[in-house]
Write a structure and sequence with these properties.
By secondary structure, the protein is mostly beta strands. Helices cover about 0% and strands about 50% of the residues.
């Protein structure tokens, strides 16, 4: 059974940076992308970024392109999301995802 645990959320001023981490335990039997999603109050969960299991290719939502960077370690046990130039509209609970497994989420609040 795969478990995902996020950390690194918090309160940051507009223009600031945060780095989210996601720790994976349990075995993976398919080459899933490792991804980050977010859900703001009153909105549906949306895709933020993903990195491939093989080759480390990345993809981003248009809203975060050029500001966020996703990465992972070689063992695929850690996934990171470096978030720069944060905006109030980035405020959300951020979730780590692999296949059909989800973490519990970490709150990111961007406010002055």
């Amino acid at each position: 059974q795969v478990q995902l645990v996020e950390s690194g959320g918090g309160l940051v001023q507009p223009g600031g940076s945060l780095r989210l981490s996601c720790a994976r335990s349990g075995n993976i039997f398919k080459n899933y992308d490792l991804g980050w999603y977010r859900q703001a109050p009153g909105k549906e969960r949306e895709f933020v970024a993903a990195v491939s299991w093989i080759g480390s290719s990345t993809r981003y939502a248009d809203s975060v392109k050029g500001r966020f960077i996703i990465s992972r370690n070689n063992a695929k046990t850690m996934v990171y999301l470096q978030m720069n130039s944060l905006k109030p509209e980035d405020t959300a609970v951020y979730y780590c995802n692999i296949g059909d497994s989800w973490g519990q989420g970490t709150q990111v609040t961007v406010s002055s």
